[in-house]
Amino acid sequence: MKNILLLAITFLFIASLYGQKIYTKDGILLGEKSEFVEACTAGASDINLNGIQVDMYSYCSCVCDALIPELYSSEIEVAMMNDDFMSLFSSDKNLGIMLDCIYKYVEVEDDYKFNQIKEYDEYSEEEMNFAIKSCVFEMEQDPESYEIFTKDMMYSYCNCALQKLIINGYSMGQLNLIENENSEVFNEILVPCIEELFLDFEHLEQEISEESEIKVNSYNPKDISGYRTFSDIDLLSNNIDYGYKIKLNINGVIRYFTLDTGASELFINSDLERELLLEGVINRNDYIKSIDVVLADNNQVTCRGLVLDNIKIGDYEVDNTIVYVIDGGSLLCGLGLFEKFRKWELYIERDVLRLYK
Question: What is the pTM of this model?
Answer without folding.
Answer: 0.52
